[in-house]
Design a protein that fits this description.
Elements (H helix, E strand, L loop, with lengths): L1 H8 L12 H14 L10 H5 L18 H13 L4 H27 L2 H13 L1 H6 L6 H21 L10 H14 L5 H26 L13 H25 L2 H5 L12 H17 L21 E8 L12 E7 L3 H21 L2 H13 L20 H17 L6 H27 L2 E3 H6 L8
Helix pairs in contact: 1-5, 1-6, 2-4, 4-5, 5-6, 5-8, 6-16, 8-9, 8-10, 9-10, 9-11, 10-11, 10-15, 14-15, 14-16, 15-16, 16-17
Length: about 475
């Protein structure tokens, strides 16, 4: 976590400019914090905002298409540290990104039952460039990732503690999962995919385990009666649904409190009461999302996300030799590119594919749990191949890619003979060391360090990375 903190907090205020979609979320966060809803800004307001003139927003409401919780969280950092510096725009996201490293270690400890593999998962997540860049930028996706990862931790705790006796309402971890999944959805609507994936898993896994338990209690020659497991499973599924879904909905609606309690938000007075107006707002936002087909130079198909074919450039500035202290004959560059460490990202993508095969052929429970994050975070995007989407959305399921990679490395070691094991351990240790070295090599293009242009270009291994 200290390593993660260093990578995410070092020179966090650079650049003191709104990079990529910070132009929307940072300014929206500040108006939301001050007025209870997002407000419009004058044309070309960024330069004034970046120079410290942060209260130049208008009284007109602004039409925004993402729920408010992520912006409330960013707004808190801006209020706490002062809105006129880029550090404050990003600190809330950075702290949640660091906390996520702790979370993935807690999750890996539950899944793999050893501290060694927990630390391995945390280490890879701490040094991956995609996680570092999204942890240093005032966007919503890193906040979404934190909440869905926290919900997954609560889900695992629920699976550890649930009892298969009579249906019960005493499921505090499931209730906590419902709250955090509601919070995730209140950051971006894609949190709903995780709510569906986790909720269906709870219901089906409960039914399967109840059936297996009922079968194990049969005397030889007896037949399992449906009512012995199906009725309790159905009742428990309804209880679990009630604990998760209405709780998530209540959390989601609560995030709109500022909009509901004021009267000058977008669409606030479009219908005869506040809740109907909120529904109208959602219809308008949904219409925007499904019709978003605007070309963008860094848009990427979800089919390519696992392999990092088109990473998103968040920021780039160049200087010619002699400008601004640049002494390189090739010129100088400052870049922030949401590109994962290739030595982590590509093996993790291969691990996801291998884990899918192993789950289908061997029905690994741990493998299935890891794939659950891929199902909730990645598969739904395959239905939006024609929509304008970006590679950096993958931060929402990156923790499960890391877990899949650790699972495969662990399996590699556990399947070696005693004679092969020392060499296998050296190979695994060499991999972790090499991954760290590659992260150090790529670090300048993750945090915007000024380098000679040729050094930046040395990192562009594929033409599509430029």
């Amino acid at each position: 976590m200290l390593l993660a903190a260093f990578f995410r907090l070092w020179n966090l205020g650079y650049p003191n400019k709104l990079v990529f979609d910070e132009t929307y979320y940072v300014k929206d966060a500040w108006t939301l914090w001050n007025t209870g809803s997002e407000k419009a800004w004058p044309k070309d307001a960024n330069l004034a905002f970046e120079s410290g003139q942060v209260n130049g927003f208008l009284t007109d409401p602004s039409f925004v298409v993402h729920p408010p919780l992520g912006k409330w969280i960013m707004g808190f950092g801006m209020w706490l540290f002062g809105p006129s510096n880029a550090f404050s725009w990003r600190i809330s996201v950075a702290l949640l990104s660091i906390a996520a490293v702790g979370l993935i270690m807690m999750i890996a400890k539950i899944l793999f039952q050893t501290q060694v593999w927990a630390v391995a998962a945390g280490f890879l997540f701490a040094i991956d460039g995609h996680a570092i860049v999204l942890g240093r930028t005032g966007l919503l996706d890193g906040i979404l990732m934190f909440f869905v990862l926290l919900a997954f931790y609560f889900l695992l705790r629920h699976l550890q503690t649930r009892k298969l006796g009579e249906p019960t309402w005493a499921q505090p971890w499931l209730l906590a999962a419902g709250v955090t999944l509601g919070a995730a959805t209140a950051v971006k609507w894609s949190g709903l995919y995780f709510l569906a994936a986790f909720g269906l898993y709870v219901a089906t896994s409960d039914a399967i385990e109840r059936r297996q338990r009922a079968e194990s209690q049969l005397v030889e020659g007896q037949r399992l009666k449906l009512r012995d497991w199906l009725i309790p499973s159905g009742l428990q599924a309804m209880i679990s649904f009630t604990l998760m879904v209405p709780t998530a909905l209540a959390t989601y609606v609560a995030s709109w409190a500022g909009w509901l309690m004021t009267t000058n938000g977008y669409d606030r007075n479009s219908r005869e009461n506040a809740l109907l107006s909120l529904w109208q707002y959602h219809l308008d936002a949904y219409g925007f999302h499904i019709n978003l087909h605007t070309p963008h130079s860094y848009a990427s198909s979800p089919l390519t996300w696992l392999f990092a074919i088109r990473p998103t450039s968040f920021f780039y500035e160049g200087l010619a030799e002699g400008e601004g202290g640049c002494v390189s004959s090739s010129g100088c560059s400052s870049a922030i590119t949401a590109l994962g460490n290739p030595l982590i990202w590509l093996p993790a993508a291969a691990a996801v594919l291998l884990l899918t095969y192993l789950f289908i052929t061997r029905k690994s429970k741990v493998g299935g749990l890891i794939l659950l994050g891929i199902v909730g975070g990645y598969l739904p995007w395959l239905a939006f191949l024609n929509r304008t989407v970006f590679q950096f959305y993958a931060i929402a399921f990156l923790p499960w890619m890391i877990l899949a990679l650790v699972y495969v490395i662990r399996m590699f070691l556990h399947t070696r003979s005693q004679e092969q094991l020392p060499r296998a351990i050296r190979i695994a240790g060499g991999y972790f060391g090499l991954a760290f070295a590659v992260s150090l090599f790529f670090l300048p293009i993750w945090i915007g360090t000024w380098t000679p242009y040729w050094y930046w270009h040395l990192h562009m291994w594929l033409p599509s990375w430029i």
